[in-house]
Design a protein that fits this description.
Blueprint (H helix, E strand, L loop, with lengths): L3 E4 L19 E7 L12 E6 L21 E7 L11 E4 L3 H9 L6 E6 L5 E7 L5 E4 L2
InterPro entries: DUF1203
Pfam families: DUF1203
Protein name: DUF1203 domain-containing protein
Length: about 140
């Protein structure tokens, strides 16, 4: 599918590569994105935005990127190693509690990673997983 090209009004266009908002007057692309390795019943596809011009990739970090701190809550949901939803893990989570909730979910042996999704539209935001030291680590796409 060919991405759609648009011009940002400066509000609500978060680039999933650099994790900053696309500025007013800047071009951006809308793509259909499936944050799973293969098509299967739980592999949701939805829109994401990217700067139309090259931008630096956001670093992987243990802290929530500033872009995500501007919203009051998100859905956190655990997934198994075979990319299926782990039922009973999904919950709308206040933004200040995301790290604690993600770490709690990642302690469950059946949870391989956590998706953070928009609480309003269920749009994919990022994947959270344990780093090599066993700490939660949010990663952009």
């Amino acid at each position: 599918m060919t991405p759609e090209r648009r011009v940002s009004d400066g509000d609500g266009v978060p680039c999933r590569h650099c994790l900053t908002n696309v500025g007013a007057g800047e071009g951006y692309l809308i793509l259909a994105y499936r944050p799973f390795p293969a098509v299967q019943p739980y592999a949701e596809t939805g829109p994401i935005f990217l700067h139309a011009d090259e931008c630096p990739r956001a670093p992987e970090a243990a802290e929530l990127p500033e872009l995500f701190t501007r919203t009051k809550d998100y859905i956190l949901r655990g997934y198994s190693a075979d990319d299926r939803i782990v039922y009973g893990t999904g919950a709308v989570t206040p933004t200040p509690e995301i790290r604690e909730r993600a770490e709690m979910l990642l302690q469950r042996p059946e949870v391989a990673y956590v998706h953070m999704r928009s609480a309003k539209n269920n749009c994919y935001q990022c994947r959270i997983e344990l780093d090599q030291e066993g700490k939660s680590n949010g990663a952009a796409i």
